[in-house]
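Morning!

This is the sequence you dropped in the shared folder:
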Amino acid sequence: MKLTLKLWAKEEFHATEKDVLIYKNKWEEIQKILEQEQATQELLQEEKNEFSLLHNAMKAKEEIQWLKSESLWLSVGDGNTKNKIYNQFKMRLFKNNVKSIQASG
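The structure's back. Tokens below.
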């Protein structure tokens, strides 16, 4: 199962890199055509579609990079994080604890 998951992740991550390159190249080609020729409605729509695909691929790539960094941080972690969170929890319990009730009158 773990091997299957690793192979799937590797395939998905590389596909995203390839997608970004493919969409970027197509978008740049359309940009060059637009600079050289008069813009048509079809060409503008094609540029819009390619830019949308490029944007989505770049967003997916960024999300994957964030997930990888988050996973790395969780696996390596900061040794003090556990103690820091626990100490904050203890302080909150201490502050929220009712020590005594005084009645007046």
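Headline: The radius of gyration is 27 Å.

More detail when I'm at my desk.
O.
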